[in-house]
Specification:
The protein has eight helices and three strands. With 226 residues, the chain is mainly alpha-helical. The model has no long low-confidence stretch (mean pLDDT 80).
């Protein structure tokens, strides 16, 4: 991409960007107000100019290949030693723009895979799971219809809070709208939902109070399931 601005214009972009506390949208307006006779750059040009100056120390679009290679190796080495770090923390530690870190990781075919949660197991639990699996396979070998004779059940608790994943809840806007969502309520309520699957039939769902008692389960099988 050829350079379309002079060094003076690039310097003024950086100055205005800092004057506006890093707000690129405000920087565009301020630049147009200060220099009405110039071609006004968009916010992307101003942001890229600032990042390029901080990263390379120059307004030139063409970066020294040796320096760029050293920077990429430094970024990759940092993530090799800290695979669970974030781009934000890496940017602060390496003093490199986040955009550069994202580009380097993408070029190296790295992706931010999510860590999955799993139930904590005690050492003796592994043998119990193995014994159950062997028993199940033995029953299946003796009777191929054995799985259809098992009622698979599960229950879940639903509350007024609902489910909110803050990592996926966001609002795209030019400026922070300071959006909020009510989370903890003074008056709470909860309900348990129980459901089973037997052969190809769905049993339920059945609704219970927050704490299910054995008597409720016995009554369920005696009155509804049977």
């Amino acid at each position: 991409m050829p350079r379309t601005y002079s060094n003076v214009e690039y310097a003024d972009m950086v100055f205005v960007y800092g004057f506006c506390d890093g707000n690129a949208v405000e920087a565009v307006r301020e630049y147009a107000r200060r220099f009405p006779n110039r071609r006004v750059p968009d916010r992307r040009v101003i942001t890229m100019t600032f990042n390029r100056l901080r990263e390379t120390g120059s307004f030139s679009i063409h970066q020294d290949p040796l320096r760029a290679n050293l920077q990429e190796n430094c970024i990759l080495h940092h993530f090799d030693n800290n695979p669970e770090t974030s781009v934000r923390r890496a940017s602060a530690a390496l003093q490199v723009p986040r955009q550069t870190i994202w580009r380097t990781l993408k070029d190296d075919n790295r992706h931010p895979y999510h860590i999955q949660r799993m139930q904590n197991l005690l050492p003796e639990d592994y043998f119990k799971r193995l014994n159950f699996s062997n028993w199940y396979l033995e029953q299946f070998n003796n009777d191929n219809s054995f799985p259809s004779k098992i009622m698979w059940t599960d229950e879940a608790t639903f509350t007024r809070r609902g489910i909110m994943n803050q990592r996926n809840c966001h609002i795209w806007a030019d400026e922070n709208p300071r959006a909020v969502r009510e989370w903890r309520f003074q008056h709470e309520f909860a309900v348990n939902v129980w459901l089973g699957i037997l052969n190809e039939s769905v049993v339920g769902p059945f609704f219970f109070t927050p704490q299910i008692k054995c008597s409720q389960i016995y009554r369920l099988f005696g009155e509804r399931v049977a």
